[in-house]
């Protein structure tokens, strides 16, 4: 919960209450490198711009308990801080949206608040003590931005962040910083630990604080960043030797994402499965007009599904005997597919297959309600039963609906009865449609992800077999070992049927039933549900089982969601990093290990539909991002501290200095605008191309204390 204090409020009120804690704001975590809970104190800025009513000529009050080092540099701001109400909300910024209302407190009042909080914490253990941070007005001497205190019965820790001016990175001499730190702490320079890290914002913005509808409609579908870290004494990124982490935030289901071509299937299947479960529990009863298959939000495209179905039927009538099954069986993945972008673009334009029931699913999944889905399904089956078209069904399509379509298209003695029974049995109709959707979705994810990971592993994901428990490295090693003897493949999709055996032209094979197809029990079950008569002809009722097992669907939906998150990350990485398949393969393996496992943070499709923003932080090979590392980072952080053995030498206290060099303001405008505006000299230098970085300095000190009185 946010904790703020009016600057007219007594210093002794609030701040130590347990419910005043919150996760560290961005302008605190950039110095501490964590998001721990803190007590954050700031005034409330209700409008912009915020003008502090404190004395801008006030002098810094010296407090004995704040023994803090560092002397301010001459003020020197870059043009990047010229913020006003016309600033676009999509401009990059280091502070989060909700921090816009955080306003500073006068330094004198901040010190009183800190002293009061220190006394209240002095009897607590270290584990129970919570640090307090106070946002300060930087218009006073020393330009303080933050004060922090954390007191307990054994220690007294305090810190201050001050604005140090601006500079070009080439002007920064880390060796001087190390020498000053060592001299101040009275230790040798070789006892100073140096850690440098930086962050590159590759593309996009973070919208984690928006509601779901806003997140799905944002201008950017996510945020891609690179976090680098090294220990060499330089602020220039050593792009060969530094450690690089790939950080990415994205919004699943973002309206501009081409990955929605398959995500829409997952969402529709999730709703259908939920509906079938509810109908089973209630004995088949449901209000189909209010049972949503597709949740519409503002900005989402609405389809005329009746027209789309008619177009599909007309198209089917035209290409009945000319449709071909492409090499590999997939329209969006071919031998020429070199990027996920092209794959997903083709999926959205052409679909993934010429199979009629797969194309029908692409229409039905966009229905808004179950009632609309039922209406269009029966409309399609009625038209097919007229015998005007002979829909193309791929030989690998084993769904029951595909068999029904084939039989109806060739005429059937009890067509009207079958359609009547489907109309009166929504659970059966919905399960027939969902079965096609699950088969198609499994196939699509396998085909797409097989561009980057072997489908032998992916098959284990869907089947949940023992192989899926092995690591991806073990799977790939097994495949490699088995392939050593010569040509060998475990990819079931590499050699799909040719055109000849993919198009079923022999009508006899669908009208004449094999006597071994149905057992006596099967026949009795069908008869019980009114789907067959006592006499069994050669042209009898299509094989529609009385019940489709939906129990595996829940696990499949979870796996789809987990794999989809990987696909979204990979697509964005390919686009933003300009990476090829070879570079993405190792990332794909790492993502699958994180998301497709028992420890995965993703458990259900509904989870992402209700909270679509997801984040990842994984190591990445420097070679994949080397071109990006040659540019200037968004910010650099230099941390100086004592090595473990330094406590035996110099001052007996813990000390740490953190310098942050940033292109953009670290703090929101209500704070940053209280620093003097840039002068002409700085503006001219920026125009000439010398990139200026704001420098802020965090000084942290901690002493052991003995609070007991010895008589």
UniProtKB/TrEMBL annotation:
It comes from the Eukaryota. One of its GO terms (cellular component) is RZZ complex. Keywords: Cell cycle, Cell division, Centromere, Chromosome, Kinetochore, Mitosis. It is found in: Chromosome, Centromere, Kinetochore. Its main location: nucleus. GO terms for biological process: cell division; mitotic spindle assembly checkpoint signaling; protein localization to kinetochore. Component of the RZZ complex. Essential component of the mitotic checkpoint, which prevents cells from prematurely exiting mitosis. Required for the assembly of the dynein-dynactin and MAD1-MAD2 complexes onto kinetochores. Its function related to the spindle assembly machinery is proposed to depend on its association in the mitotic RZZ complex. Belongs to the ZWILCH family. This is Protein zwilch. It comes from Leptosia nina.
């Amino acid at each position: 919960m946010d904790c703020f204090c009016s600057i007219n409020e007594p210093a002794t009120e609030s701040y130590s209450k347990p419910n005043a804690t919150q996760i560290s704001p961005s302008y605190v975590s950039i110095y501490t490198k964590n998001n721990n809970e803190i007590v954050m104190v700031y005034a409330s800025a209700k409008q912009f711009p915020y003008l502090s009513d404190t004395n801008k000529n006030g002098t810094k009050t010296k407090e004995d308990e704040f023994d803090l080092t560092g002397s301010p540099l001459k003020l020197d701001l870059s043009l990047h801080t010229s913020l006003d109400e016309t600033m676009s909300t999509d401009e990059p910024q280091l502070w989060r949206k909700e921090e816009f209302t955080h306003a500073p407190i006068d330094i004198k009042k901040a010190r009183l608040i800190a002293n009061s909080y220190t006394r209240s914490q002095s009897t607590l253990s270290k584990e129970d003590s919570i640090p307090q941070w106070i946002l300060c007005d930087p218009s006073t001497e020393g330009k303080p931005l933050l004060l922090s205190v954390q007191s307990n019965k054994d220690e007294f820790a305090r810190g201050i962040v001050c604005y140090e001016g601006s500079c070009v990175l080439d002007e920064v001499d880390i060796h001087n910083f190390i020498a000053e730190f060592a001299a101040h702490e009275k230790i040798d320079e070789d006892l100073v630990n140096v850690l440098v890290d930086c962050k590159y914002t590759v593309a996009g913005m973070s919208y984690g604080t928006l509601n779901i509808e806003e997140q799905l409609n944002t201008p950017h579908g996510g945020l891609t960043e690179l976090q680098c870290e090294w220990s060499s004494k330089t602020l220039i990124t050593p792009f060969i030797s530094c450690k690089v982490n790939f950080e990415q935030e994205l919004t699943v289901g973002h309206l501009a994402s081409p990955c929605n071509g398959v995500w829409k299937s997952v969402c529709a299947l999730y709703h259908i499965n939920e509906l079938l479960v509810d109908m089973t529990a209630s004995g088949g009863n449901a209000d189909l007009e209010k049972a949503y298959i597709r949740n519409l939000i503002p900005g989402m495209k609405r389809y005329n599904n009746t027209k789309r179905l008619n177009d599909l039927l007309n198209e089917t009538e035209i290409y009945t005997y000319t449709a071909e099954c492409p090499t590999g069986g997939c329209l969006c993945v071919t031998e020429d597919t070199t990027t996920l972008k092209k794959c997903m673009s083709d999926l959205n334009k052409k679909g993934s297959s010429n199979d009629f029931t797969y194309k029908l699913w692409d229409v039905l999944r966009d229905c808004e309600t179950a009632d609309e889905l039922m209406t269009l399904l029966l409309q399609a089956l009625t038209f097919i039963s007229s015998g005007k078209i002979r829909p193309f069904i791929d030989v690998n399509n084993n769904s029951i609906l595909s068999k029904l379509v084939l039989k109806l298209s060739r005429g059937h003695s009890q067509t009207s009865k079958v359609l009547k029974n489907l109309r009166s049995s929504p659970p059966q109709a919905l399960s027939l449609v969902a079965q096609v959707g699950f088969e198609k979705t499994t196939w699509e994810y396998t085909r797409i992800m097989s561009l980057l990971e072997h489908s032998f592993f992916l098959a284990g994901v869907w089947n949940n077999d023992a192989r899926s428990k092995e690591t991806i490295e073990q799977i790939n090693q097994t495949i490699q070992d088995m392939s050593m003897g010569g040509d060998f493949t475990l990819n079931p999709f590499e050699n799909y049927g040719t055109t000849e055996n993919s198009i079923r032209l022999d009508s006899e094979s669908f009208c004449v039933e094999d006597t071994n197809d149905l057992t006596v029990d099967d026949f009795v079950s069908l008869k019980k549900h009114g789907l067959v008569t006592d006499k069994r002809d050669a042209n009898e009722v299509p094989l529609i089982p009385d019940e489709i097992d939906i129990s595996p669907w829940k696990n499949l939906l979870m796996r789809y969601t987990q794999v989809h998150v990987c696909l979204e990350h990979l697509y964005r990485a390919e686009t933003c990093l300009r990476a090829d398949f070879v570079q993405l393969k190792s990332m794909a393996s790492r993502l699958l290990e994180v998301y497709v496992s028992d420890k995965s943070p993703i458990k259900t499709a509904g989870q992402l539909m209700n909270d679509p923003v997801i984040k990842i932080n994984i190591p990445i090979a420097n070679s994949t991002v080397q071109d990006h590392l040659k540019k200037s980072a968004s910010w650099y952080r230099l941390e100086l501290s004592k090595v473990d053995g330094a406590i035996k030498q110099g001052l007996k206290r813990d000390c740490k200095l953190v310098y942050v060099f940033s292109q953009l303001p670290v703090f929101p405008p209500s704070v940053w605008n209280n620093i003097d505006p840039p002068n002409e000299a700085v503006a001219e230098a920026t125009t000439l191309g010398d990139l200026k970085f704001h420098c802020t300095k965090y000084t942290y000190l901690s002493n052991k204390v003995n609070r007991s009185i010895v008589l």
